[in-house]
Design goal:
The chain is mainly α. 50% of the residues lie in helices and 8% in strands. A hairpin with a 2-residue loop joins strand 3 (150-153) and strand 4 (156-161). Keywords: Signal.
Length: 193
Amino acid sequence: MTIRKVCLCAAVAALLAGGCSGSKPSGPRVASIPGSSAASSAAAPEKAAGDSVVDRVLPLGATQEQIDRAYDAYYACWTAHGVPSTKQGGVDGGPLLTYKLNAKKYQAAVDACADREPLNAPELDPQQNPQYWDQLRDEARCVQAKGLPLQVVPGQPGLWVRPATDANFRKVRTDEATEIQRDCELQSFAKKR
């Protein structure tokens, strides 16, 4: 699980609790709900749902544009299969929030789009990368040295915001923080051991 997925989980939790600002970060790796902008567009679902050009495997150090494009296509597929967008507290949570609020009802639509779900680079998969945990610890040291409150949680892939406070979540969602995270990911996972 990368930071974007960890923060995605945190963003969903914050939306469900009504504590999210709703602004989408412009830098890579930290999540608002990816794809929420396209999910609210009427024209995007048809175009993206049939778009087989989007590469679902994100490259190491993916930019926010690459992440958004992959998730836009994925969530457009959900929308094409009947998962509407949900707003809560004035924030558009897109089809992901709809699914989280009623997973049983929309599971068939999500299953129909499983072959479009974005995948992390193989380097970020503990099952494919035997050096994953050492490299993740390197990434944690890198981001911590630059002032970001991210840590490895034993047994949990990816970096986690610790302590999990609103201030720390806001801190890792800045453009500067997302660049730090991207640079540290590239530095830590691109090197061979």
